[in-house]
Amino acid sequence: MNQKTMASAQTTAPIITPTSTSTHNPSAATELTGSSWNKVDTTWVLSLFGTAVGAGILFLPINAGLGGFWPLLAMAVLVGPMTYFAHRNLSRFVLSSNNPKADITDVVEEHFGTGAGKLITLLYFFAIYPIVLIYGVGITNTVDSFMVNQLGMESLPRWLLSITLILGMMSVMMAGEKLMLKITQFLVYPLVVILAGMSLFLIPDWNFAAISQAPSVMDFTTTLWLTIPVLVFAFNHSPAVSSFARKQREQYGDAAVAKSDAILKRTSAMLLGFVMFFVFSVVLSLSPEMLLEAKAANLPVLSYLANVHGSPVIAYFGPIVAFVAIVSSFFGHYLGAREGMNGIIIKQAKAMGKTVDKKKVNLFTIGFMIITLWIVAVINPSVLGMIEDLGGPIIATILFLMPMYAIKRVPAMAKYQGAIANVFITTMGLVAISAIVFKLLA
User: Which positions, given as ranges, span the membrane (predicted)?
Assistant: First the structure.
């Protein structure tokens, strides 16, 4: 279950890669038309879903809900096509290469040159690295809240709790990728069931008063605009797309685009259904004042619910869901960040005519990750602020705008020109970036 990231032609990326009995040979590729659905396709849908579910989704109800019901409804309408068309375009970009084994860095270099390949590698690292930092903060706050509010314990010193949790997650990574992928696979599938169960459990607590409170046009537009970057982050599974697209080409040859489109469509539908149902259920269960309190506490919304909800089910399962979602996504995104940083160092060394020991580079990266994760977890910056200010704009650039540029400039992608979806995705990418620029300037 290995996957490459955009960082390097020889890196692995963060998802559970389904196995298949088919092998890559010309005859196999021609036999598989991609028209029929199979078990491996379903596994891919669940794996891509697991890549997207993490801290972004657990914090999404806070930002999305603060603006009220009607902007939230508009987000639900937009986020499905946003997610599908953006990831579909990125997949098609990877599949546009003449090299059947090319990852996204290879494709960028093939179409735009070596300099652009280095730039995308750098940008991709800085898209993933803040997410890893977010997980260090999120898991520390989740466990601390659980210990204090559910177990009745006193808080451990933050520096001690954070380093213990970080080393615990890192030890799984250092034990080997096979162990990490087994643990990730074990975590992802129950997460789907539990997330749906929690959403249903909250239905009796729904308060529909917010539906009657219609915001002004200005408030509605501003809320929607400023929340778009969080939506981009929360539904993002782009770290998986490079390996996913290559795997489809191995199995389906010329039919890879059609098969990839079908899998990504089902993934987007699953994310829209499960995640937005969860968001609506949580938002309708909490008042705006409670959402503000959760934001101020810098807690995942389920950890906050566990502290204020009277049900023991929510009290104990809420933090467990938050913990599982953060850990499962941390493993995958850490792989991308690690290999991204390794790729930057190795490529720069080669450009300078130097040879580097890959094992030493890897050890340096591990040490760098542990130290920076620890420092940020102790400082405890706003998770929502990190999502909005660091993750959203870079992800939007790579996921929304780069494939659109390729459709205009690359002959192999010219056949995708003229679609209305292209205008929509370009607009949403620019909206996400403009929202961040506005907030930074404000």
Answer: 44-62, 68-86, 119-139, 159-176, 183-203, 223-241, 269-287, 313-337, 361-384, 390-407, 419-441
In-domain check, residue 313: yes
Does a structural domain hold residue 18?
no
Within 10 Å of residue 9's Cβ, how many Cβ atoms? 16
Would residue 16 count as lying in a domain? no
Look-up: residue for tokens 């990877």? Answer: 94
* pTM of the predicted model over 0.90: no
Please give the residue range of the domain that contains residue 392. Answer: 46-441
Other C-beta atoms closer than 10 Å to the C-beta of 242 total 28
More reliable by pLDDT, 21 or 179: 179
User: How many angstroms separate the CA atoms of 214 and 219, rounded?
Assistant: 10
User: Is pLDDT above 50 for 10?
Assistant: no
Q: Residue 349's domain is classified under what CATH number?
A: 1.20.1740.10
Q: Rounded to whole angstroms, how far apart are CA atoms 330 and 326?
A: 6
Specify the number of domains making up the chain.
Answer: 1
Residue 385 pLDDT > 70: no
- pLDDT per residue as tens digits for the range 230-254: 788 788 888 778 878 888 998 888 8
What mean pLDDT is predicted for residues 268-294? Answer: 87
Q: 68 in a domain, yes or no?
A: yes
